[in-house]
Every structure is written in structure tokens, then in C-alpha cells.
TrEMBL record:
Specifically methylates guanosine-37 in various tRNAs. InterPro entries: Alpha/beta_knot_MTases (IPR029028), tRNA_m1G_MeTrfase_C_sf (IPR023148), tRNA_m1G_MeTrfase_TrmD (IPR002649), tRNA_m1G_MTases_N (IPR029026), tRNA_MeTrfase_TRMD/TRM10 (IPR016009). Belongs to the RNA methyltransferase TrmD family. This is tRNA (guanine-N(1)-)-methyltransferase. It comes from Lacunisphaera limnophila. It catalyses: guanosine(37) in tRNA + S-adenosyl-L-methionine = N(1)-methylguanosine(37) in tRNA + S-adenosyl-L-homocysteine + H(+). SUPFAM superfamilies: alpha/beta knot (SSF75217).
Length: 225
């Protein structure tokens, strides 16, 4: 799979994309990620990418020309062109899985007060928000989307089964995990986990998931099949 990211701050992604699972996935050619500076498509001598809003108001708006030129240069037939914005559709694990099956994504990170609406109307297929808060720019949001979808690409996670037991896979939060020592600062690991009865362990874990979900994310329980 190929992902092109368009941002004014390519440096924000450098370390992030080279470390850990993503770094390894890229080395193993499971995932090709190219980070581009939107400014490279500006044509004036100051490499301008923004301008004052028509109608007045505070802040600047990203201009059509550099972004549309960049997307048109990078796009391929069938690719998905996604704009990261707080007024987009909320990102979910289902969306991450769906995107992981695409051949080619273009992720556009916005900045300032937003981008000219005509960009959204002409070269964007889909708009995604990573949560109800506003970041200073969409680059971290693009990073979040890449990280979440990479986990669904076969071979990226060491152990495939960790995908099926974790939070959100069945609209349940994860169960509590423990490792050695069996007693730490007077706190013992639940007895059932030490006894090796896998049926009992499964039952306990599921009960813990239900309890935790009811406590912290009751909204998820309503989505249970
Ligand atoms: N850009 C700024 N805030 C954002 C958010 N919450 N999600 C996606 N892109 C953003």
C-alpha cells in the first residue's frame, strides 16, 4: 500500500514514521509512505500557500492552487484523497480497517483557519476527524490515521491474534493484562490467570471487558450485536 501525505510540516512526521512498527513495516516494504511539503507546489517566489479569507475574519485560508496541483500530481486511478479536519467524520477502527485495504491514499493536512472550500469540492473524496478537539494542524491526525490502519496490514503486527482481542474489535474495551511478578507491591495477579484453565480465563476476560466497557464507554455496549 502507498500513502502520500501533504503537509506544511514534513519534519513532524520524520521520527514518527521511522520508529517501531511503522519503521519496520516500511523497511519490509509492506507500506510505502511519502511525505511531501505542500509548499513545493507553490509557484510564487515566497512560496505562498495561504491568503486572507474572502468575507473577512481572523486567520488565513489555504489556497487552492498549490494543494490542487499537488493532489493532481500525486493521485492515481482509484486512490482515496482524504482531508484531515476537525469537522470531518469521526475516525474509528472500522474506518482504519477499510482504509488499510486501499492501494493508495493521499492524506491532506490542513492548517490555519482551514482550506478553501473548492479544494474540498474538487480534489477530496472524504474528510476525517480524529476527535472532538482542534489541533494546530492536521499532521498529527494524518499520523494517527496511518498508525491505526497500518496495524491491519498483514505482517505489520508481530502477532496477528493481538488484533482480535484488543479494544474496539468487538465494540468492547480491552481486558486487564498482567505479567510477572505475580505479586507487586502487595497487589496479586487475579488467581484465574495463574491456574492455566483457558476456558475460565476466556470467561473472566470477557466479563472484565463487559464491566470495563459499561463503566467507561457505555455507548459502546449499545453497538453490541
Ligand atoms: N486538524 C485539526 N484538528 C483535527 C482533528 N481533530 N482531526 C483531524 N484533523 C484535524
Amino acid at each position: 500500500m502507498r500513502v502520500d501525505v501533504l503537509t506544511l510540516f514534513p519534519g513532524m512526521l520524520e521520527g514518527f514514521l521511522s520508529e517501531s512498527m511503522l519503521g519496520r513495516a516500511r523497511e519490509a516494504k509492506l507500506l510505502e509512505i511519502n511525505v511531501h511539503n505542500t509548499r513545493d507546489w507553490a509557484t510564487d517566489k515566497h512560496r505562498t500557500t495561504d491568503d486572507r479569507p474572502f468575507g473577512g475574519g481572523a486567520g488565513m485560508v489555504m489556497k487552492c492552487e498549490p494543494i490542487c496541483a499537488a493532489i493532481e500530481a500525486l493521485q492515481s486511478p482509484g486512490c482515496r484523497r482524504i482531508y484531515l479536519t476537525p469537522d470531518g467524520v469521526p475516525f474509528t477502527t472500522a474506518k482504519a480497517e477499510e482504509l488499510s485495504k486501499q492501494q493508495h491514499l493521499i492524506l491532506l493536512s490542513g492548517h490555519y483557519e482551514g482550506i478553501d472550500q473548492r479544494i474540498r469540492d474538487t480534489v477530496i473524496d472524504e474528510e476525517i476527524s480524529i476527535g472532538d478537539y482542534v489541533l494546530t494542524n492536521g499532521t498529527l491526525a494524518a499520523a494517527v490515521v496511518i498508525d491505526a490502519l497500518a496495524r491491519f496490514i498483514p505482517g505489520v503486527l508481530g502477532e496477528e491474534k493481538s488484533l482480535t482481542s484488543e479494544s474496539f474489535t468487538r465494540n468492547l474495551l480491552d481486558f486487564p493484562n498482567y505479567t510477572r511478578p505475580a505479586v507487586y507491591r502487595g497487589l496479586s495477579v487475579p488467581e484465574v490467570l495463574l491456574q492455566g484453565n483457558h476456558g475460565e480465563i476466556e470467561k473472566w476476560r470477557h466479563a472484565q471487558q463487559l464491566e470495563k466497557t459499561a463503566k467507561f464507554r457505555p455507548d459502546l455496549l449499545k453497538k453490541q450485536p
